[in-house]
Amino acid sequence: MASGGGSLTREQFLLREMRIVADLRTQGEPDDEIIQRVKRENLFQYGTERMLADRARACLQRLDALENADGSPESREAAARLTELIAHGAPEAAGQANLYAMIRRYELMRSFIGIEIADRLACLDYTFTRVDMNAFFTRYQLENAEAATWSDATVYRIKSTLASCLINVSMLDSTKGGHLSPLMLDFEVESAMKENGDADIAAALSGLGAM
């Protein structure tokens, strides 16, 4: 259920929204009812209702992406644990689980972390500048037909979102680019990722290897 990533211009990191939606899912609420509750009760506390349904749907899609397509018991259990962590875990663990969901949900995020960030961390290169971000996007757009059609404004917003996501989990110190840091994964998050068959993603985020 991977998405190219263009929707990141609208979605952002959404940790607060993810925690609300994950909490409702852990209570057994059906997806349709979750969306309706978010709209009806303005659970995200937005100034306008325009984005409520779309954001709720985006959160549900990220949670869905935590489970492997084969629906194995191990993957279902890992997805359930990660959903619980997003809903009720410490903010740091919830943020890490949300980033992992985004890596699984968006091909752009997977490429960004797996190619650009993981390789730097593995080589002990802790610098990441706007020039580096621009170079990544140039390569990505050359290799991806959907991305090649994005406007300059869309690309600018996505770049900002990617940088903000790293800042939200303390992997980058500035949206303008600066110092990268390996992610000190929460034990429960790392364990669930490995159980889900994504030990390579855990290693990449920790600076221990490429995806």
Describe the 3D structure.
The protein has helices at residues 8-11, 15-26, 31-41, 52-65, 73-88, 91-105, 107-122, 130-143, 145-148, 152-168, 187-195, 199-205, and strands at residues 127-129, 177-179. Strands 1-2 form a two-stranded antiparallel ribbon. Helix 2 (15-26) packs across helix 4, helix 5 (73-88) runs antiparallel to helix 11 (187-195) and helix 11 packs antiparallel against helix 12. It is mainly α and 211 residues long.
Distance between the termini: 19 Å
* Number of beta strands: 2
Helix content: 55-70%
Q: Which percent band covers the strand fraction? A: under 5%
Mean pLDDT: 92
Give a quick set of tags describing it.
two-stranded antiparallel ribbon, 12 helices
Secondary-structure map:
Elements: H1 8-11, H2 15-26, H3 31-41, H4 52-65, H5 73-88, H6 91-105, H7 107-122, E1 127-129, H8 130-143, H9 145-148, H10 152-168, E2 177-179, H11 187-195, H12 199-205
Antiparallel strand pairs: 1-2
Summarize the structure.
The chain has 211 residues and is mostly helical.
